[in-house]
Amino acid sequence: MATILIIDDDDAFRDGLAETVRDLGHTPLEARSGEAALESLREHPMPDCIFLDFRLPDADGLSVLESLRGLTGPQRVPVVMLTAYATSDNTIRAMRLGAWEHLTKPVGRDEIARLLERILAARVDAPAPEAAQAFAEEPSSREPQLLGISEAMRDVQKRLGRAAGTNSTVLITGETGTGKEVAARVLHRASARADGPFVAVNCAAIPQDLLESELFGHGKGAFTGAHAERRGRFEEAHGGTLFLDEVGDMPLAMQAKLLRVLQERAITPLGTSRTIAVDVRLVAATHRDLPGMVAAGTFRQDLLYRLNVIPLYMPPLRERIADILPLAEHFLVALAGPSDEARKHLSADAQRLLVSFTWPGNVRELANAIERAHALASSSLLTREDFAFLFDSGTHPADAIPASLLELPLNEALAQLERASITRALALADGNRAEAARRLGISRQSLYTRLASLGLSDSDA
């Protein structure tokens, strides 16, 4: 039996969660505010787990989380953050502060049972594990945002939040257009280095014979045309983050020099004998298969080990269908600016087209498509015809999805597509639900929930 502290000012939700905890054989403690919870913790033994709401009457849930860390230490008591509206920002900040999990209300009994089982099983001398309203609650910002409400993107946001609390090297992988640089900038902004510089270098865009000078700098006369000393990007990023995009395109000779810098934390500008210590957090990104390149001898294995300390995979848009329409609406709002009169909307047939399109260019292609349709459409309602230019790419959605499906109401079409995807994954996995969930890119718990909502069983596969 465990003691579970629930901090939430919503009496109905708190009482319901307490009843669930009690039914599961545990002892619930309740607090309506952050101050009441902290006072209780100062006077009583620490609970085994804490459920903490983001919005409290006397304090922000994140500030309470920081106070809890001061009382219990970052790893002693697992804290589960609860919110009615999950945003990329509050998810990342919660995980950055050491939250165990971040759940969106309402939370079902089975989910609570599974979560407590995981937490209590890991409580025996073990640290915490590595660990909609679309974007309506996202704070407006000119800074890049890692937006997404799909389970795949929520996992990315959580991992990024955890990574922000460390100084370790991060390797971001994923297809072109998935937002790797956006993720790097969000990581920098959420980290302790946020006040330092963020310096981005595209390794594929710089000629090989100039890359060393670009990264490490050079002395006067180091080569023809070097009329003065020049600081390199490592030195410019001192105290901040250096983002090496397309690191898989770096030549082998340069890979060896980068490895040495990562080991020694110092650079030697080209054409000099000076050694300059650098304090830089390195974030690398690539769309290439680095393990495959290692096998082919075109990428150093020891460098891959150095880069891949914290891996972060950015899923393609076709694997996060739930994000397509919210992202499209987000882009439309941004294009309209402060004027509601300039706002354009998507018709039902346009929505069906967008969710059925394969988006080989991912989020970048979606953003460009929305901007093009917004600029050229004569009406405030964007229809399927306004996106006809997508067909010119040779990836007509009908190639992958039957035309009959595209004529259905959106919710019904998505349900049929989900049913077909799950049935196929179960068949390919011979009924193994864990393997089917892996193929679908979702958790087993999510698969169980979807099977139940669709009325599917293994025998249906």
From TrEMBL:
The keyword DNA-binding applies. This is Sigma-54 dependent transcriptional regulator. Residues 146-375 form the Sigma-54 factor interaction domain. GO terms for molecular function: ATP binding; sequence-specific DNA binding. Residues 3-120 form the Response regulatory domain. It holds the Pfam family AAA_lid_14. The modification 4-aspartylphosphate is found at residue 53. It comes from Paraburkholderia caribensis. GO terms for biological process: phosphorelay signal transduction system; regulation of DNA-templated transcription. Keywords: ATP-binding, DNA-binding, Nucleotide-binding, Phosphoprotein, Transcription, Transcription regulation. CDD domains: AAA (cd00009), REC (cd00156). InterPro entries: AAA+_ATPase, AAA_lid_NorR, CheY-like_superfamily, Homeodomain-like_sf, HTH_Fis, P-loop_NTPase, Sig_transdc_resp-reg_receiver, Sigma_54_int.
